[in-house]
Amino acid sequence: MSTVTTAHTAVLKTEAKLFRREPGALFWLVVFPSALLTILGLIPAFREPGAAPGGLRVIDLYVPVAVLLALSVAGVQTMPAQLTGYRERGILRRLSTTPARPSSLLLASLVLHAVVVLGSVLLALAIGRLAFGVALPAQPAGYVLALLITAFAAFALGCALAAVPRTVKAAQTLGTVVFFPMMFTAGVWIPVQSMPETLRHLVEWSPLGAASQALGQAAAGHWPSWSHLGVTGLWAVLLLTVAARRFRWE
Amino acid sequence: MSIIEVKGLRRAYGGRPVVDGISFTVDEGEIFGILGPNGAGKTTTVECVEGLRVPDAGTVRVAGLDPIADHDRVTRLLGAQLQESELQPKLTVGEALELYSAFYQDPADRGHLADRLGLTDLLGRRFGKLSGGQKQRLFIALALIGNPRVVVLDELTTGLDPRSRRDTWRLIEEVRDSGVTVLLVTHFMEEAQRLCDRVAVIDRGRIAALDTPAGLIRGASAATVISFTPSRPLDPADLTALPAVTSTSRDRDGRITLHGADDTVTALLSLLARHSVTAGRLRVVDATLDDAFLDLTAGHGATDLIDRES
């Protein structure tokens, strides 16, 4: 293996160890979305058939919400906090003075968040299926595609939020400000499918609103509409451009 | 034979020159000090040597390599301890050593290095729980882990208590004795005087003087400091008239301090004899690097300059 590959592997291994030492981050990424799903599932009215559009139950709509929640916690909270912390502590700079590259920390953060979020998604799907009888996505390929594009957007947002603020404190404040609209457009309060029409059309222009529709369609067995996938994808490209232009290693 | 060559280095931030034409060479195996007030351009200079900053003008070579163009090769032979940098708070000492040694093809023996820097008992401790001195020892270890030929230590002992500082000095001497060239940035005179083979005094982005610590002290205009308490008051005019006097001062208890040269001492003794004045607790000492430094960087306060250029 080349030195760079060895360095990437070593950084990834170390970061994986450090990730396990962050119970707070793991709670918000993995436990919180599924816990919310469980609590809502325990409400009898949410399990009434036909209470939601398309003859669905409300709880059916909340599985994609839990999935989007895990992604937004990663993109808005844990990833920017981690990356700005590494910059503020001079860890990225220190790596620049070694044969390793500071980008290996960015890469490790992306890989680990992807793994943890995937675990969180699988947990939400499993709880939905086993505890509340929510059907697994009927169009799995479309679901995976929508999930990949949404993950791309969420992680691009994470990088952009790490790039724009100069300090950890500013990143946290900005993250909190962004987190509420993210939760709203993901449908935490009202699932996107149940929103009044005007509001829904508006929300469909947001990255998670569009993603919510795409995931909902795939869950119901349809191929997700390209316009929804396109909106989320465009946001991803836009946020990544901001991140690439503004990101500073020190 | 020189391992670091800096020629005509210039770097400005927002139109303000921070490094303004600095040139020096560091010989293999020496401890070379860069001394200067805060904001003088010390850190920017070594950041150019480390390849963290691109100079506006001038050349920098480390073992003949350009730290920017040959960044990868330079990182393999230069170890750096950066000012005000930290590690992940939950990373243990042992994990940090393991991680950083994985970056090099031929790393130093971790156990041996930990032992040498007194880190063996701390291997399981997290970075966030280390004391200032322990952190600095770990940073020295990380700078040495790739078996470098040069280490750059930037304000290594700032914030340490006097005992840890002296322990760290001994470590730096050991590093040099093992054949590694040390580029040491400091604003402590005592540190430079004790450790450095040669010192470049940087002031407002330029080299004000470059010599051995002893040479700098000799070259200062006030190389001798005389202090005494006269048995009777002396005429201040008589004191300022003494040969080679650069400054005189009198404290509340009537004790007089003169900065001058050897000639001043002889002339003072005859002056006292003429007036039948005895000199209580007479002390004649060589000036320290401190005095030489103040002499070299005289004429402006360091406080109005910003602490760190970024």
Helix/strand structural class of chain B: alpha/beta
Number of domains of chain B: 2
Give the overall silhouette of chain B. elongated
* Unreliable runs of chain B: 300-310
What string, H for helix and E for strand, traces the elements of chain B in order?
EEEHEHEHHHEHEHEEHEHEEHEH
Give a written overview of the molecule.
The complex is a heterodimer of chains A (250) and B (310). Chain A has 250 residues and is mainly α. Chain A has one domain (1-246). Chain A is 75% helix and 0% strand. Chain A has ten helices and no strands. Chain A has helices at residues 3-20, 23-41, 58-88, 91-96, 103-132, 140-163, 168-186, 197-203, 207-219, 226-246. The longest helix of chain A has 31 residues, at 58-88. The two termini of chain A are 29 Å apart. The model of chain A has no long low-confidence stretch (mean pLDDT 92). Chain B has 310 residues and is of the alpha/beta class. Chain B folds into two domains: 2-217, Rossmann fold (3-Layer(aba) Sandwich), CATH 3.40.50; 221-286, Alpha-Beta Plaits, CATH 3.30.70. Chain B has helices spanning 42-50, 71-77, 93-101, 110-116, 132-144, 162-177, 189-195, 213-219, 236-240, 262-274, 289-296; strands at 2-13, 16-27, 31-35, 57-62, 78-81, 150-154, 181-186, 198-203, 206-211, 224-230, 247-250, 256-260, 279-286. Chain B is elongated and about 75 Å long. Mean pLDDT of chain B is 88; it is low at 300-310. Chain A binds chain B through residues 3, 6-7, 9-11, 14, 17-18, 21-22, 86, 89-91, 93-94, 96-100, 250, and chain B through 50-52, 72, 75-76, 78-80, 82, 84-88, 90-91, 95, 98-100, 102-105, 142, 146.
